[in-house]
């Protein structure tokens, strides 16, 4: 698998996508942590207000995902990615200028969070729908391993950079660097050429992308009629809801109860991303030896249980040590889960439905995140941040056990999942017994 990864990186179009995604994702991850952190550090916001800023970044997922799916299936992916990169960089640049002219306000943070979140919805759907157009099914695990490694590395570096920038250099420098990252991504994406679709598929009327409401409904029917994708949707949504509640409560717990600096809190959260980097790279190297379904299931359960363990052990040990160990374990397991989850989601839908199915998937998996951020902030206000961590950790662990009943456990190889029949015209669903045969 290591040789397959090297071969992909030698391919110019994939290398440009990979490099541009690395810079764009780092810029987004830095901004994602920077905005609520500014609410805590610069404005002294309450837990509920901090949760509101975090939630504002995810609200567009609920409002715009289905629309983004239709756009992704019909527009040039390169153009969609370029426009979204420009919008995100410009929004952060405007934040720096507005701060210099008028000072920082909660409404300013909310507005920028909504703009960045909206552009990210369109960017992610277009970018993720483009990957199967560049890679063959047997290359998806290796390619997604490299791309998930980027995601994991930026999850680690983004919070750490945001915390250090705010602590040491202040808001103007933090915004300038984040904007520069989006500018670098724009340069990398500029010469990118992504096929708009499969010419053979597009030549037949059945394979042409549908329009408007019909495209949305077709993608929704496929997503919920396909048992493997439905299970991944539900589990990812439940995990993201709990994770946002946990991270919002932890941000407040670390600063106000454990006495940690903003930089330390960012570094601790970044440890999870370091673990995810290790997990995603490792699974890319060992894919041929691993059973995809069992590895995916174990990854989600371990990732969830590590959060519960951290919340329960925090009062008895040093905060930094307990949470760094738990976040590391969580990250490794989650990196493994994500490589397989993304690859299966890309290989199962028909090519003409990739954008619509990706949008539906993201709506269900990321849509609960704003609610999770709000719940975490409200629980921290009502019961205390420590209690909020315990409730979030135990609840996500119980929810992850539901995946043990999924037919996904029988998928041996990602490419074998392609043989699963699609839902029929009358809404017939996949036969889960065929998965992994």
Automatic annotation (TrEMBL):
Alphabetized UniProt keyword annotations: Cell membrane, Membrane, Transmembrane, Transmembrane helix
Compositionally biased region (Basic and acidic residues): 428-437
Coiled coil regions in record: none
Subcellular location: Cell membrane
Broad class of the protein's primary localization: membrane
Region (Disordered): 417-437
Transmembrane segments annotated in the record for this chain: 79-100, 106-126, 161-190, 260-283, 295-314, 320-342, 363-382, 388-404
Name listed for the protein in its UniProt record: MFS transporter
Organism per entry: Streptomyces hazeniae
């Amino acid at each position: 698998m290591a040789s397959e990864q090297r071969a992909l990186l030698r391919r110019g179009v994939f290398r440009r996508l990979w490099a541009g995604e690395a810079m764009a994702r780092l810029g987004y991850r830095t901004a994602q942590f920077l905005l609520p952190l500014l609410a805590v550090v610069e404005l002294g916001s309450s837990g509920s207000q901090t949760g509101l800023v975090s939630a504002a970044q995810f609200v567009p997922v609920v409002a715009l995902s289905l629309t983004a799916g239709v756009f992704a299936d019909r527009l040039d992916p390169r153009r969609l990615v370029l426009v979204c990169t420009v919008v995100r960089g410009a929004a952060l640049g405007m934040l720096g200028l507005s701060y210099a002219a008028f000072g920082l306000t909660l409404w300013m943070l909310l507005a920028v969070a909504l703009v960045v979140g909206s552009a990210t919805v369109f960017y992610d759907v277009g970018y993720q729908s483009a990957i199967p157009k560049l890679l063959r099914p047997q290359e998806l695990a290796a390619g997604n391993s490299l791309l998930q490694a980027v995601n994991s590395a930026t999850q680690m570096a983004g919070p750490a950079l945001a915390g250090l920038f705010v602590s040491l250099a202040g808001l103007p420098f933090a915004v300038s660097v984040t904007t520069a990252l989006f500018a670098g991504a724009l340069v990398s994406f500029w010469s990118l050429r992504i096929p708009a679709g499969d010419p053979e598929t597009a030549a037949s009327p059945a394979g042409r992308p549908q329009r408007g409401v019909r495209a949305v409904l077709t993608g929704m029917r496929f997503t919920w009629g396909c048992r493997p994708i439905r299970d991944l949707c539900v589990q990812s949504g439940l995990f993201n809801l709990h994770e946002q509640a946990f991270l919002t409560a932890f941000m407040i717990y670390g600063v106000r109860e454990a006495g940690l600096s903003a930089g330390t809190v960012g570094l601790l959260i970044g440890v999870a991303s370091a673990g995810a980097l290790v997990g995603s790279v490792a699974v890319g190297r060992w894919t041929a030896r691993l059973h995809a379904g069992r590895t995916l299931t174990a990854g989600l359960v371990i990732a969830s249980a590590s959060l519960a363990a951290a919340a329960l052990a925090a009062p008895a040990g040093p905060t930094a040590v307990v949470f760094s160990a738990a976040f590391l374990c969580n990250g490794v397991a989650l990196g493994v889960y994500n490589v397989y989850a993304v690859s299966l989601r890309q290989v199962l839908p028909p090519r003409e439905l990739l954008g619509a199915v990706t949008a539906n998937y993201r709506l269900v998996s990321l849509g609960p995140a704003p609610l999770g951020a709000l719940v975490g902030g409200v629980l921290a206000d009502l019961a205390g941040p420590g209690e909020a961590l315990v409730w979030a950790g135990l609840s996500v662990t119980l929810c992850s056990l539901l995946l043990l009943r999924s037919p996904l456990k029988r998928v041996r190889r990602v490419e074998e999942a392609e043989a699963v029949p699609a839902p029929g015209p009358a809404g017939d669903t996949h036969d889960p017994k065929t998965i992994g045969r």
